Amino acid sequence: MKALILSDSHGLVEEVEAIISRHRAEVDLVLHCGDSELPEQHQALQQAIVVRGNCDASPFPDEWSETVLGVALYATHGHKYNVKMTYVTLSYRAEEVGAHIACFGHSHVATAFKENDIIYINPGSIRLPRDRKEGTYCLCERTETETIVTFYTKDGDVVEDMIYSFPL
């Protein structure tokens, strides 16, 4: 399973379209973790699974979960789980839905970590990054032996210090 994950694009259209176009052929799904600030039917989001962020007016769902090629995925924006302060509440929800991978946004801080056998991914923001100068998104690939999360700049360059490998 391979997923393209982005979040917090805050109205960017050309950049979202370019990122999805760049990776669409190599991924099984595209997740946008909220604050796209685009209408629900916007062309840029037609190939993506989108959840609602605190800045979104469109009626996207608050969360999404599904098993894709044997991998239980969960996505939410994170504002309802107070992710700027703690990951505990989000971890409870990820455990409730049986997620292998939990994706979120809201803080604009790109990160990936594993806790209690769940991999948590925040792709950062392609528009307003925090803790980094470059806007980011990521690809997450699950193989038989590991999960690899690779972060990219919005222009498609690998962020060399943000490649994570989590053994299964």
From TrEMBL:
Keywords assigned by UniProt, alphabetized = Metal-binding
Question: So which domain of life are we looking at?
Answer: Bacteria
The answer, when asked if Metal-binding is one of the entry's keywords, is yes
Q: Which Gene3D superfamilies match?
A: 3.60.21.10
Q: Which GO terms describe its molecular function?
A: hydrolase activity; metal ion binding
What this protein needs as a cofactor is: a divalent metal cation
Give the family per the record.
Belongs to the metallophosphoesterase superfamily. YfcE family.
Q: What is this protein called?
A: Phosphoesterase
Q: Which organism is it from?
A: Halalkalibacter oceani
